[in-house]
## 1
Amino acid sequence: MSKKINIFVAFLFILEALFISSCSIIPNEPTPGEIPVSSVAVIPTSMALEAEGETGTVIEVIHPLQATNKKVTWSSDDVNTATVSEGVITPLSPGITFITVKTDDGNYSANCAVTVSTPERYFTFDSKTGTITDFNYAGGVDIVIPPEVDSVSVKHISDLAITDSFVSSVIIPDGVITIGMHAFSFNSINSLVIPDSITIIGESAFMYNELNSVVIGNSVITIGEYAFYDNQLTSITVPESVISIGASAFAFNQLTSITIGNNININNLPQTMGSNTGFKAVYDSGGRQAGTYHYISENWIKE
């Protein structure tokens, strides 16, 4: 009799397990009749605003349009630069941030790159030539140069425009063509991106800063003498577009790695390519070949 009871109890356990299994809910499975979100996008994907200026609006587009749950969450990567609420962006201070929207259903996300420029009122601007000629240091130590001033495109940064202005960072917009003599000298800038629109970096343009990273755009033709004199660079890439590098352009930088294009005319002064001298001799004797050169055991060697 007890054997039959044991078999019966075991049978009940099996039925219970089958019942629980059939009632289990698979995570993230949509409720019958609901249409799940498949993706999200934003319009626009980039935006330029002015610090303390007008707000901007980003619109989310959820796919499919008939999705049941269209709830989203907005966030800013840098709330000191800009904040966001329901897609409305409030610019606060110069910088770059990414505004992200994330769906409640599926955690899909998309972002908009927002550049917040320094207010135009801090720049002196020649609208006839598209040239910034001066900067009021009351505009702050972190500068984002606006792509336009009074609806006129910024094309040039003049001689001495932002020299000795206590600047610790600068973002130069694409569209600027030339950087003048001593334009940013005697500041504390530690990293720099030269946009692809720039063709000329003037004499002493960035001398006496604290640069440890520089990206030179692919349209630069001339790097003027003393352009990056006395910084903290240890490596540099000189693009194929460059034709000439002026005297002492990289002097008083401890360069140990140089990537350079073909047939670039380097000034004869020994320190032109940094404190570790001898680069020009190796580059020229090898036929001015493009490549990466390293300073090893007091000698420049091409990879």
Note: The longest strand covers residues 95-103.
## 2
Amino acid sequence: MRRIFLATAISIAIAVCVYPATVNKISQDKLKTYIEKGAPFDFILIDVRSRAEVSVAIGNESCKPYNLPYPLYFLPESRKIPKDRVIIIYCASGMRSVQAAGFLSTNGYVSVYDAGGIMTWTGPTIGGSEIKSLERLPEPSMRATVSGFLQKMRDNDLFSVNGRASLYSRWMQDIELFLQSRRLQ
């Protein structure tokens, strides 16, 4: 029992000290657009604030986040999420979300994004009681929509490939993500 406690304490201490050099960011405006108009891919939205802090959460009827307080619940529960899923993380101010995103990135998760803090959020919110139950992990918070995919194409969102902007490349990535998410249903 003492070894388990010690191992848990060491894991939490290491996780809290993670300050990655680079963490993928998603702007709150982009996340707001995905939530309001649809996303071109499935994603899991995670609020890493403590349960006591969560009276409202980012989301709407189509997009409900999970609450995985960092680091206590986040570390063991995040193992339920496949490493190839798109994960968007936020907290109160942006500090814990960077740490949580860094933890996932350094542990092999490939599509992790930090959305900062809810204190600067101007988009839709839901009540804390509407947050998804942890038993539903790894179910996406939001499913890909055709409208989200088409909006992404209309926005001409460029993607750099080998230092060159390639609209076609970005569209192909989005098409692959959209089709992959449809196959998983």
Note: The chain has one domain: 2-144.
